[in-house]
Amino acid sequence: MFIRKSVAMMAIAAIALAACSSPAGSGGPGGSSATACKVGVAWATSQEERYKLRDEPAVKAAVEAGGGTYLSGGDAQNKADIQASQIASLLSSNINVLVLNAVDPVAVLTSLQAAVDAGIPVIAYDRELESAKALFLTHDNVLVGHMIAEAVTKVQPTGNYVIIKGDKTQTNPTFLRAGMEEVLKPLTDSGAITIVAEEFTPDWTAENAQDEMETILTAHPDIQGVLSQNDNMATGITAALNGNADGKVKIGGQDGDSFALNRVALGTQVVSVWKNSIELGTAAGKAALELCKNPDISKVSGAKASKTTGGLDSFSLLLNPVPITKDNLQVVLDAKWITKEVLCKDVTPGSVAGC
Q: Is residue 340, in this structure, part of any structural domain at all?
């Protein structure tokens, strides 16, 4: 713990030095030339399929299409100290906008403040930051949670349920759980559904979710439904259920990952709520270009006044998700999100629309 704190303190010092030593006229938006726009992006992880394959290329493409320069801090590997160091490097590179996909929403606030102090506007990408100074850009995660629960309870309106949540250090699990509760409350109040277990999952990993689910199954072997807060964890849940080949346990997830969409086609997962991360990355790149011209986050197209989880007045830009079930697989095919070959792997031809 002491070593980790020491590394973090050195990273913080580097951030402060970078912010104070940037050449005049070359750092924040106020001093850059009219056409210059260098966008730095700090990524929490590349473990999820979406971030490396879809989000990052979309941000980069949008920035470069607008004449800007994209600069990645690299993969922080879900480690707050690594991310602090990467943000320090981005700030020392005289970026004009910081897009921040945070590992830890508390630990990263010092880095965020260093950017703000340097006059650099910040976009909180896909993960909320407790700051009035950052534009929160994501899909509507309360709605995502609602859609997961709605799809699963539609096909399994009774029985024992498990909820596998994301990392407890982040706010997205809270948003998702609130959306789930909108659907679950009348069913749990009536006794139709019983939630026998509910767990947070460190780093949202499939391995941790599998361990959690195996432990739960030991105590509660009779499970009818599992609400997973993302597709990566749903992979671990499915493994704990020995593949759930007969689809007996109804599983829901989100992100529209290719392996999860294939499970939807196979019938081993009920729903994957599709958050088009290409659309999200494109929106982030365009918002960053706007902030290069005007660093006021309230002026970004589509931004609306909102409050952070902690009650701070800020601004957010929320995109709409789409639940993908066996009945509308054609949606992701038409969007060229996934190929038919990948979607329909091992699926009996004609058993579902799209395959």
A: no
In a domain, 326, yes or no: no
Domain with 159, as residue range(s), is 141-254
Task: Tell me the C-alpha distance between 128 and 123, whole Å.
Answer: 10
Helices (H), the chain: 2-21, 49-50, 56-65, 80-92, 109-117, 141-155, 172-190, 206-219, 231-240, 258-266, 277-293, 330-334, 340-343
**Co-location of 182 and 86 in the same domain:** no
- 10 Å CB burial of residue 348 (0-12, 13-18, 19+) is exposed
Please tell me whether residues 154 and 245 are part of one structural domain: yes
pLDDT digits 0-9 by tens, 121-134:
999 999 999 999 99
Closest CA to 72 of 57, 62, 80: 57
Phi-psi region for residue 132, left (φ > 0), alpha (ψ -120 to 50) or beta?
A: alpha
Residue type, 218: T
Residue 271, domain member (yes or no): no
Q: Are residues 285 and 311 in the same domain?
A: yes
Report helix, strand or coil for 297: helix
Alpha-carbon dihedral 5, 8, 14, 15, rounded to 10 degrees: -130
Question: pLDDT tens, 299-353?
Answer: 999 999 999 999 999 999 999 999 999 999 999 999 999 999 999 999 999 999 9
Number of domains in the chain: 2
Q: Is residue 283 part of a domain?
A: yes
Quick: pLDDT tens for 133-155. 999 999 999 999 999 999 999 99
**Residue 23 CB contacts under 8 Å (≥ 6 apart), including other chains:** 94
| CATH number (domain holding residue 290) | 3.40.50.2300
